[in-house]
User: Fold these one by one.
Assistant:
Number 1:
Amino acid sequence: MNDFAIDIEKQLTKLGKDIQDFVERIVPLEDKGHDFAPACDIIESDEEFVIKLDLPGLSKKEINIALKEHVLTVKGERVTELDDEEVFRRQERSTGVFSRSFALPENVNAAETDALFRNGVLTITMPKSEVLNDAQSIPIK
């Protein structure tokens, strides 16, 4: 491949990522219960893609990761329970249902995707591969 073709491919990839980021910002959430949107990082290397989501206060049992038609979706809910005699004087920590979806690149082997939850951070590792296998759900370690 010549340098011009490589540059065009990089620009198209960047444009696709910019469009996805824009859509994720403007698409309204399904209902008003979706007020918790965990922050995430997406990291790419030559061998893999890694998604890291901040999910403090959750256990891995409260998180669901699903894969369908090359879209990775992470869902869960963070709840704050008060006793009958307690009231919030200030509530700054977000609670509620959340759902984050990520369109996976074509070269991700979904069957080898790995998820690890430690210290409130969910790390999803997706190896790049020419041989693609699909998966429906991903267990969290």
Number 2:
Amino acid sequence: MSISLYAFNCGWFQCKAGFFIEGLEDQSFVRSPVPAYLIDHPKGRALFDTGLGERNRRAIEARLPHDKFGLELFEGMDIAARLRAIDVDPSSINWIIASHLHNDHCGGMMFVPNATVIVQSKEWAAAQACEDPWVYNKVDFDTGHSIKAIDGELDLFGDGTVMIVPTYGHTPGHQSAIVRLAGGEILLAADCCYTERNLNERVLPGFTFDKEAGLATLDRLAQLRAKGTRIMFGHDATMWKSVTEGAPVS
């Protein structure tokens, strides 16, 4: 059964290096991608995350200074534009797999009108209850989409090719996806593991809801990597240099 995976950068996340690595004293700023992925399966199309939305859009000439924290989305970078660039109609997407409901991962849901959002029940409850719009903002995720709240793992297409798996720690209900391609298994990590350095050094970012769960998740990723699974990290600028947008990931 043929299945394809495509990677897109749907915005920029600019922050101090120490934001990603707890305890790191490096105060320099890094500019990292905001990934989203299309999974094209004979039984339907799914997005893993949707990148940034309209409230982070800015003109290219108004981009952030190199030493300022923030998120930004430029013209042509939103998930709808990325999909249309490879001749995929955003209205044809059946599922959105929301790794979690922070705005750089779910902000683009507004561009994908017909999809059902798959989210862990714990995540949906946490986002609904949160009163801090910097952490969870209903503008991003409470968009009128149908919601499929799950608990634990889900075999999306019933054939083992796309497994949604809980990777708790960063948020109460963070989840990742394991995609089994002809060339091997790929895990879409999102923010359970920002960068390869987090995994190599078994170190969490400073912003972690449950550190014990987060370390357990890193251990699971390390075991999968040792068995040959390729990890697509959540905000790793170095890794992203090896990604060709608009071409199938292999």
